[in-house]
Write a structure and sequence with these properties.
It is a single chain. The protein has 269 residues and is an alpha/beta fold. The chain has one domain. The protein contains 6 helices and 10 strands, in the order H-E-E-H-E-H-E-H-E-H-E-E-E-E-H-E. The strands form 2 sheets. It has an 8-stranded mixed sheet with strand order 4-3-5-2-6-9-1-10, with helices on both faces. The chain has a two-stranded antiparallel ribbon with strand order 7-8. The longest helix has 28 residues.
Length: 269
């Protein structure tokens, strides 16, 4: 039986929000940024950006970075109805649409939202293939002149929904969650089809590399240079109260390769 009732969708959103906060709140969350100014919760963050991560790890940014002026692209499919309610409860704006349904209208709305908000996309969603980047983020970055920020996430020994197209990852309670985040990546304006494909492939490779680093870091638990503890943002940022969650280590300086010299940042071109 398919759920049609707005009341049940709303109830599902409230219960889902409470479950995510309780479950994800048990995790040991740490991140390493190539540039701390890319964190939308940081007072160093300036200007709009386009954040991308794989769909299977959407729970982590959803939990950690609400109330950070982010607009999320969500599918028009009924399956995403509860997720849209959860996103709103956790402090995200959202646009409904995809390459399959409502794509043109969603693109126009994203362009409008980008004037005042960051955009966040799962470029292999909503139906896959898993960990293969669609050209949408590259197109938006090229047309809007906004930088891309690529986020790799990983959990320690997560449970996987093997029947799902993305093998959706569910972290074990009280386990490690890790994030490795790129600096801003600037895409040339008005790319043609060949240029879009070139950058699509390069960003996909980078996304998979950072995701692999985050997953290995979560499994090993080894400390990383420049790591910091990440806490959820529970209320909107205001000029008087400062921005972002408490950090248990000094802010990451704008240096190359906080993950270590062997993994120093290589620009995409």
């Amino acid at each position: 039986m398919k759920i049609q009732s707005p009341f049940l969708f709303g109830l599902g959103g409230l219960l889902g929000t409470a479950a995510i906060r309780a479950w994800m709140g048990t995790l040991d969350c740490k991140a390493a940024c190539y540039d701390r100014a890319t964190d939308p919760a940081s007072p160093l963050c300036r200007g709009q950006k386009i954040y991308v991560c794989w769909h299977e790890y959407i729970l982590l940014p959803l939990y950690l970075r609400g109330h950070c002026n982010l607009t999320m692209l969500l599918s028009r499919h009924r399956d995403a109805e509860v997720l849209s309610r959860v996103a709103r409860q956790l402090g995200f704006d959202f646009v409904r649409g995809s390459t399959r349904r409502g794509g043109v209208a969603a693109l126009r709305e994203l362009v409008r939202k980008s004037r005042r908000k960051h955009l966040t996309l799962t470029p292999d969603g909503p139906r896959g293939p898993r960990r293969r980047m669609a050209p949408g983020p590259i197109f938006l970055a090229s047309k809007l002149g906004l930088p891309l920020v690529v986020m790799g996430f990983g959990y320690e020994r997560p449970w996987r929904v093997r029947s799902a197209w993305d093998q959706f990852a569910i972290p074990r309670p009280y386990s490690r969650a890790r994030a490795v985040v790129s600096p801003e990546i600037h895409v040339p304006p008005d790319l043609d089809r060949e240029g879009l494909e070139h950058f699509r492939q390069r960003i996909e490779e980078l996304q998979n590399r950072l995701c692999g680093e985050a997953e290995a870091w979560a499994e090993s638990g080894t400390p990383r240079i420049g790591q910091f503890t990440v806490e959820p943002v529970l209320a909107p940022r205001t000029p008087s109260s400062g921005a972002g969650p408490r950090a248990h280590s000094p802010a990451c300086p704008r240096t190359r390769g906080p993950i270590g010299a062997a993994n120093a940042w290589q620009p995409v071109s």
